[in-house]
Amino acid sequence: MILDPHHLSALSAILRHGSFEAAAADLSVTPSAISQRIKALEDRVGAALIHRGTPCTATPMGLRIAQHAEDIGLLEAKLARELTLDRKSGPARVRIAVPADCMATWFIDAMARVDDLLFDLVIDDQDYSAEWLRRGEVSAAVTVGGQTVAGCDAIALGALRYLPTASPEYLRTWFPNGVNEASLTRAPCLTFNRKDSLQKEWIALQTGRRLSPPSHFLPSSQGFVDAAIAGLGWGMNPVGLVDTALSDGRLGLLVEDAPLDIPMTWQVGRILAPALRPLTAAVLKCAQRALRPDV
């Protein structure tokens, strides 16, 4: 099925900006023209692509088609570079799923090393970035573990080290007799969101049991650190975000020498891998500096 590029650009602009009016301004056309393009595209594929609301959001098929449009843009940009064609159309856009903690610790450095790309990042819990890639809604992703997504090239990046941290006052209050099954069951912990299993995974390694401690839900990597320093709860924090607070005494470890190393993998759609080769090189270089060797 061949889809009109003007229709595809209208869909991408709506999802990027959240409304037909903003998409029209971005593409220098009228809102009526945007509506006509979306109607024509929906008629062509035989399904609704956008949930009309504030903001407008995509249906599952709409997301897939929008990602298809961005993939085409990446391939066209690569062809233009190879043929030294006029590139006045501007940089290509790439949509990537990245765990929040990678974003907070090293991934921005990789982005800064690449020219001629506009980034559209999907930030999710570390265990779920692969799902975005599996559904075809992103072109590449930093995923957890070594399991590869079909149709993708996968490169091991190393492991992101997490440490169980809390404020000294919190440790004195909740763990006066040490860290054990009883105290871990009672002590409030910090949880990124309802997908986050790091705290429970660490507890299972320490106790041999799956416990369900009371949790604060806090979907912010830096907020996680700040909440631990404030004594709100304990949490698994990336070492790069807490090394200073550990050194100056604002944070302490629940247990010495008990880190949790989470292996990371860079996966990119095989068809798009050549077009994203500069980004892949930047990701590997920055990950090598920030992550531990995955042994």
Task: Report on this structure.
This protein has 295 residues and is of the alpha/beta class. Strands 3, 4, 5, 6, 9, 10 and 11 form a 7-stranded mixed β-sheet that branches. A two-stranded antiparallel ribbon has the order 1-2. Among the domains are: 1-90, Orthogonal Bundle (Arc Repressor Mutant, subunit A); 160-261, Periplasmic binding protein-like II (D-Maltodextrin-Binding Protein, domain 2, 3-Layer(aba) Sandwich). The protein starts with a helix and ends in a 5-residue tail after the last helix. It is elongated and about 70 Å long. Helix content is 45%, strand content 21%. It contains 12 helices and 11 strands. α1 crosses α2 (20-27) and α2 (20-27) packs across α3 (31-45). The protein has helices at 5-17, 20-27, 31-45, 60-83, 100-112, 129-134, 168-174, 181-186, 198-207, 221-229, 239-247, 277-290; strands at residues 50-51, 57-58, 92-99, 117-124, 140-144, 152-166, 189-191, 215-217, 235-238, 252-253, 260-269.
Number of strands: 11
The CATH topology of one domain corresponds to: D-Maltodextrin-Binding Protein, domain 2
Q: Which structural class do you get from the secondary structure elements?
A: alpha/beta
End-to-end separation: 45 Å
| Rg from alpha-carbon coordinates | 22 Å
Topology pattern, helix = H, strand = E: HHHEEHEHEHEEHHEHEHEHEEH
Give unreliable regions as ranges. Answer: none
Name the average pLDDT.
89
- The portion of residues forming beta strands comes to 15-25%
Could you provide a short overview of the structure?
With 295 residues, the chain is of the alpha/beta class. 45% of the residues lie in helices and 21% in strands. The protein has 12 helices and 11 strands.
